[in-house]
Specification:
Helix content is 36%, strand content 25%. It is α+β, with helices and mostly antiparallel strands and 61 residues long. It has one domain (2-55).
Length: 61
Amino acid sequence: MWLRWVYMNSVLEVNAGDWEKEVLKSGTLVLVDFWHEQCPWCIRLNPIFSEVAEEYKNKVK
């Protein structure tokens, strides 16, 4: 499983080592998507997360 978050108009991938710094201690609202590369629903939702990233850039990390 990978961790992703929406940040400044892009969907970024992080590993578990970055979780505390980038999510728990970010100081801003964070939208996190837990996904797996072989999950059909995860693949279907990827474009939606890209749209959300564009719509909420500078508001959500």
